[in-house]
């Protein structure tokens, strides 16, 4: 009989490739939107609808995906989502109209949302406490790498006829590799416990097989039974504060901040996307190294504190150095009828690249663009030139003294880097790790999906209210409001979020059952100060 497959590397590949697919699909629209605008003559509203259509599918998946995950199993849900992703990618690659593009993006949104939930739960259940933090956080690292990969392919295919079709099609590669890895892994923790060869992966703490497991209904999430209400408070609080701190909208101004310190035109957009992407990768890898040492709670507290300081710093700097209100959408009124980018259009040479759509880390953050409608106007000297999609980076107001304000602009850039880093080693990876740990296995899929639906809905609310908020209180006060929200999030984490490092899922479940109120988790809790009851497992070591 042959040796069993190397399970830890396979689990790592499932997590990394799942995140890679998610990140790629989130960001690929940034490079595809400009040629799509030329080929189909998309208006501003149509561009918004196309970019936001991924959100529609993702919301649907967050509403029904939990039942699919709990009913059919985590592994089957991932494999099924990859089949759906393949169908969506084929639809996008062969699309001949806006309708098919929107349908394809919606199908892809459903697939990546379902896969993201199932992947985190599957990996967290399959591995032991010592590996769980690293392997689940690897999904977040895959997201940031997928974003960078999409930028690289977008750049490489920008001048290729029908290049956007290839951009959409390449998303199937990591999904197919992930499916191949899954074929060598067990269906779940139960199957792991049933095979002696797989028990070491769980550290000898695989769940009991069999009988006597409790049954939970969806409404139990809001009841006092087994402190499910406290668990839901923790889960919803994390996903809401993750969004209400304004991370997607702050990234919307990355190109403007880069431009303000001297990087203009295309270089500003490139640095804003690739530079911040590299920062995200570095911060996420740092979180992977610390999550099982410092703990989930410590990373969340540190990340939220630095987010509060940095976003407040951007707000204070913008009082002294006014910045433009962000990206603008200038529509192409008529379809060009050409394939790809015309060689003599001058579009890429004369205009700034559009800002990359916001991609959370999260992860799990939709990329619904917040855009400002402006009247189309031709380039000077060329009345027949079509309007373009540009990033307005002019700084309003009278000229400012160079030396002092240059220092303030670099300070804003530093604050932006700190903000991105803080999110990427705090809320970005840890929120989804905690959500995959705190619920009982019988309802984990539905609970995870329920919290995820609030994540997408909160992102939609923040995106749609952003311009109105700026118009009401101004850009500086908007950033300061995000800073205040981060301070409130810091208090929530301190009072409500438990430390789960070094504990098996069964031990975490026991502690939640014993603690009737989530508030009791907060003060002075650490993993060494709690007494646990070890669950006995009758299995050969």
Can you walk me through this structure?
The protein has 541 residues and is mainly alpha-helical. The protein has two domains: 1-184, MFS general substrate transporter like domains (Growth Hormone, Chain: A), CATH 1.20.1250; 220-324 and 404-516, Up-down Bundle (Growth Hormone, Chain: A), CATH 1.20.1250.20. The protein is built from 19 helices and two strands. It has helices at residues 7-40, 44-72, 74-94, 98-126, 129-156, 163-169, 172-182, 189-194, 228-244, 247-251, 254-260, 265-290, 296-320, 347-350, 402-425, 427-438, 444-473, 475-496, 505-514, and strands at residues 328-329, 372-373. α9 packs antiparallel against α18, α11 (254-260) packs across α12 (265-290) and α13 runs antiparallel to α15. The longest helix is centred in the N-terminal third of the chain and has 34 residues, at 7-40. It starts with 6 loop residues before the first helix and ends in a 27-residue tail after the last helix.
Explain briefly what this protein structure is.
It is a multi-pass membrane protein. The chain has 541 residues and is mainly alpha-helical.
Keywords:
541 residues, mainly alpha, Growth Hormone, Chain: A, two-stranded parallel ribbon, 19 helices, 2 strands, disordered C terminus, cytoplasm, transport, MFS_Sugar_Transporter, MFS_dom, Solute carrier family 2, facilitated glucose transporter member 10
Q: What is the helix tally? A: 19
Class based on secondary structure composition and strand pairing: mainly alpha
Number of domains: 2
Query: What's the overall average pLDDT, rounded?
Result: 77
Order of helices and strands: HHHHHHHHHHHHHEHEHHHHH
Shape field: globular
Q: Give the radius of gyration.
A: 24 Å
Poorly predicted tracts of residues:
192-210, 332-363, 365-400, 517-541
End-to-end Cα distance: 19 Å
Main-sheet strand order equals 1-2
CATH-wise, what's the superfamily of the largest domain? MFS general substrate transporter like domains
* CATH architecture term of the largest domain: Up-down Bundle
Describe the largest sheet: 2 strands, parallel
- In CATH, the topology of the largest domain is named Growth Hormone, Chain: A
Total count of strands? 2
Q: What percentage of amino acids are in beta strands? A: under 5%
> Which class of the largest domain in CATH terms?
Mainly Alpha
In percent, how helical is the residue content?
55-70%
GO biological process, one term: D-glucose transmembrane transport
InterPro entries: MFS_dom (IPR020846), MFS_sugar_transport-like (IPR005828), MFS_Sugar_Transporter (IPR050820), MFS_trans_sf (IPR036259), Sugar/inositol_transpt (IPR003663), Sugar_transporter_CS (IPR005829)
Membrane topology: Multi-pass membrane protein
Domain Major facilitator superfamily (MFS) profile: 11-501
């Amino acid at each position: 009989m042959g040796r069993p497959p190397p399970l830890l590397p396979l689990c790592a590949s499932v997590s990394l490739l799942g995140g890679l697919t998610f990140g790629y699909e989130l960001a690929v629209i940034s490079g595809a939107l400009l040629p799509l605008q030329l080929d189909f003559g998309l208006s501003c509203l149509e561009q918004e609808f196309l970019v936001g259509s991924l959100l529609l599918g993702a919301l649907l998946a967050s509403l029904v995906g939990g039942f699919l995950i709990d009913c059919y199993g985590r592994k089957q849900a991932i494999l099924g989502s990859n089949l759906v992703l393949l169908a969506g990618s084929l639809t996008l690659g062969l699309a001949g109209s806006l309708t098919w593009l929107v349908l394809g993006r919606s199908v892809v949104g459903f697939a990546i949302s379902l896969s993201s939930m199932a992947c985190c739960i599957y990996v967290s259940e399959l591995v032991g406490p010592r590996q769980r933090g690293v392997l689940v956080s690897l999904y977040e690292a895959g997201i940031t790498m997928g974003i960078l990969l999409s930028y690289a392919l977008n750049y490489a295919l920008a001048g290729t006829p029908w290049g956007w079709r290839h951009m959409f099609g390449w998303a199937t590669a990591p999904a197919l590799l992930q499916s191949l890895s899954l074929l060598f892994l067990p269906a779940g923790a139960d199957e792991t416990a049933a095979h002696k060869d797989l028990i070491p992966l769980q550290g000898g703490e695989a769940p009991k097989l069999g009988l006597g497991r409790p049954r939970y209904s969806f409404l139990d999430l809001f009841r006092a039974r087994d402190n499910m209400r406290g668990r839901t408070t923790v889960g919803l609080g994390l996903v809401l504060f993750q969004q209400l701190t304004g991370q997607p909208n702050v990234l919307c101004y990355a190109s403007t901040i880069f431009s303000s310190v001297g990087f203009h035109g295309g270089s500003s957009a490139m640095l804003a996307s690739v530079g911040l992407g590299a920062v995200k990768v570095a911060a996420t890898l740092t979180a992977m190294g610390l999550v099982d040492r410092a703990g989930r709670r410590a990373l969340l507290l540190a990340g939220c504190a630095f987010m509060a300081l940095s976003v407040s710093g951007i707000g204070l700097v913008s009082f002294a150095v006014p910045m433009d209100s962000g990206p603008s959408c200038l529509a192409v009124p008529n379809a060009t009828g050409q394939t790809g980018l015309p060689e003599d259009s001058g579009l890429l040479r004369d205009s700034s690249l559009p800002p990359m759509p916001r991609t959370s880390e999260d992860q799990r953050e939709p990329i619904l663009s917040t855009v400002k409608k402006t009247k189309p106007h031709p380039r000077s000297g060329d009345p027949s030139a079509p309007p373009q999609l540009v990033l307005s980076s002019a700084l309003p107001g009278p000229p400012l003294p160079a030396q002092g304000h240059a220092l303030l602009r670099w300070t804003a850039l530093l604050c932006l880097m700190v903000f991105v880093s803080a999110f990427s080693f705090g809320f970005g990876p840890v929120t989804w790790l905690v959500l995959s740990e705190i619920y009982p296995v019988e309802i984990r899929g539905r609970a995870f999906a329920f919290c995820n639906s609030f994540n997408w809905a909160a992102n939609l609310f923040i995106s749609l209210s952003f311009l109105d908020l700026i118009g009401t209180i101004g850009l500086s006060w908007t950033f300061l409001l995000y800073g205040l929200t981060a301070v409130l999030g810091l208090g929530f984490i301190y009072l409500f979020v438990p430390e789960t490092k070094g504990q098996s899922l069964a031990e975490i479940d026991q502690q939640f059952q014993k603690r009737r109120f989530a508030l009791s988790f907060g003060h002075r809790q650490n993993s060494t100060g709690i007494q646990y009851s070890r669950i006995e497992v009758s299995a050969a070591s």
